[in-house]
Amino acid sequence: MLTISLRGENMPPSPIRKLVPFAEAAKRKGIKVYHLNIGQPDIETPPAILDAVRNADIKVLEYSHSAGNESYRRRLVEYYKSVGIDIRHDQILITTGGSEAIQFGFFCCFNPGDEVIVPEPFYANYNGFACAAGINVVPITSQIETGFALPPIEDFEKVITNKTKGIIICSPNNPTGYLYSMKEMEALKAICLKHNLYLFSDEAYREFCYDGEYVSAMHLTGMDNHVVMMDTISKRYSACGARLGALVTKNKLVYDTAMKFAQARLSPPGLAQIMGEAAVDLPADYFEKPKAEYQKRRDALVSRLNAIPGVFCPNPGGAFYAIARLPITDSDHFCQWLLESFEHKHQTVMLAPASGFYGTAGLGKDEVRLAYVLNVEAIHSAMDCLEEALKVYPGKKQNATSGQLQSHI
Amino acid sequence: MLTISLRGENMPPSPIRKLVPFAEAAKRKGIKVYHLNIGQPDIETPPAILDAVRNADIKVLEYSHSAGNESYRRRLVEYYKSVGIDIRHDQILITTGGSEAIQFGFFCCFNPGDEVIVPEPFYANYNGFACAAGINVVPITSQIETGFALPPIEDFEKVITNKTKGIIICSPNNPTGYLYSMKEMEALKAICLKHNLYLFSDEAYREFCYDGEYVSAMHLTGMDNHVVMMDTISKRYSACGARLGALVTKNKLVYDTAMKFAQARLSPPGLAQIMGEAAVDLPADYFEKPKAEYQKRRDALVSRLNAIPGVFCPNPGGAFYAIARLPITDSDHFCQWLLESFEHKHQTVMLAPASGFYGTAGLGKDEVRLAYVLNVEAIHSAMDCLEEALKVYPGKKQNATSGQLQSHI
Description:
Chain A is an alpha/beta fold. Chain A has helices at residues 6-10, 20-28, 47-54, 70-82, 97-109, 125-133, 153-159, 182-195, 252-264, 270-279, 288-307, 331-340, 376-392, 403-406; strands at residues 32-35, 92-95, 115-120, 136-141, 164-170, 198-202, 227-232, 245-249, 321-325, 347-350, 352-353, 367-371. Chain A has two domains: 6-44 and 287-406, Aspartate Aminotransferase, domain 1 (Alpha-Beta Complex); 48-279, Type I PLP-dependent aspartate aminotransferase-like (Major domain) (Aspartate Aminotransferase, domain 2). Chain A contains 14 helices and twelve strands. In chain A, strand 5, helix 8 (182-195) and strand 6 form a beta-alpha-beta unit.
């Protein structure tokens, strides 16, 4: 019999996309669904970067250099300089989205059976790339009470084995919105140096920091060979569909190895590189507007959430996500119920159950992730739905305000 | 010490790109280099498909569906119908180039340690994707004397073990240009059914068949679950830089498994999908012109090659590649020498040493691959260079006309 591979069997389906059929069914019933479930911003892609593609004089759309067009990489050097990162163009490898940067990094640095530590909750697709590469994600739990700050270094020490080869962080974080401080970054540096670990740093959301300074892993000194930065223009310029990212590292061996994987797939997307290059020319204050908009949305979302009885949502310092604890016991059931069995004025809200962002089984069952990618008015409407839903949801905890205790029973 | 992965160490560098520094050096010396080394056509990308991107009304360049836009997949159903392939839109998974289709297929169907049989010479990047997936490519040799026809089925039987899980073919072939006949395809079908093997069919060049009928693996009946087709718009519409391909299979389990890998990387390139969808609207006779152009080039190239003493080049039935045997003993050295130490009227030619396309060590050392991606005039100039070069090359075989015998000593 024909069989599929074990890694294919073990490959996790997207925890975010599994509810899509229920959302589609709700829409067919005429219900308006507020999508707070996915990090697809509604912010306009800067027309100037789309115009760059429209105005490009292309006779033959050729393969680019496997590392991406040199002209684009040289412009990125300027961009990175503007965020305090000192890097050369031959230390930047252009990838198909941040996704491919993660994949190349995993393939280059880790052997099957190796372990990487990731503070949970974390970006669920790390699981998929880890599965493809045959490596094991070892979660250590960050706590909602601390706003999902870096877990104590002792927690890292406890799980480090001779198989441990790296730590993955994402700051500002998806799904928590937490922004690591310099102190936390220095703690990560110390443990990476002590145990000879790679520090994989996913910096997709660096432009969106509200209550603190953005600290890049590339800002840390004395650990150049340890840092592999994964980047993307998806969120920065609201251009998720372009599929353009970068793997950035000063470790020459990692870079040269990644280049071999890059050569095998020939080149990153060509039209998107034109967009990316044009983006470096956007005015210096370009980010002010989207950042202010996201902050307004965050403030609206978080204050509405915390005003609902039994709900707790720490204030995220960056990105455009928040994780909230709800007075429920099964967020998967609740999110499906919102789409299948609930409506408020012919409207409902789609959320992402947080369980999909935890590596430890059983965690996140009373939490949901909310992406504040809709305007303030829509957020208020969505929160109206959530508030009403929690009044009537049959799976609610008995004593809503003591939800935190009950979740540990 | 920080280490890179074993698969990263083992990952083969591109055999085609290693000569690039020598070509750059030649250009710096003012020498014109005819690039017959790489499958980057000079045929214009159809302006209509670039216009489709220019005219697209995009406010936010969003993630597409992980399988690609449904509208594009539905149009592809029509395209495939036009080439005799009967397929549904939910059996098509849009990928980032044909490269990602190969990668997804390998990840889904094969476990580390599994073996896939590939007639050699073959597309060198299969090695890279096999290395990433931890699978072993088992070559069986096709012969230049037969024009690189399918090796006898006994040769397949000889290497089949309990680890063998699939066969990879490419027809019309890169790098040989050979076009498998229906009889050869039926032979492949028989062996796949007998031994329960997947048939991976790389059909990147189907539009360019000159001396025979194109036969798709999808044309074979009674083996729907065995066939995984890998496709791309790169060569079809001279749009290599778009990075748009497809994995096509009627095997639902393989498709659903590939979808999990597709979800992890979110979506294929967005702007390219607009191009791909518009391409289906090109007039029915669109391919006539590029096909006639390639055929003219092939005829010029092959007749010039065979007129050079000691050179033999079988006439390729399709694609835009030919493999020629030269009166030399080390094609890597010869190709480098052409760039480093030779010029004819301030011109030289860049070729791909065929050794990089063989899995068996030592084969292809008297062969080169030529991509006829330049116009007829340029091809004649390039052949002038090659002809002159072979007169003076110091590494030439002593008796040029008996090169074939000598290569086996």
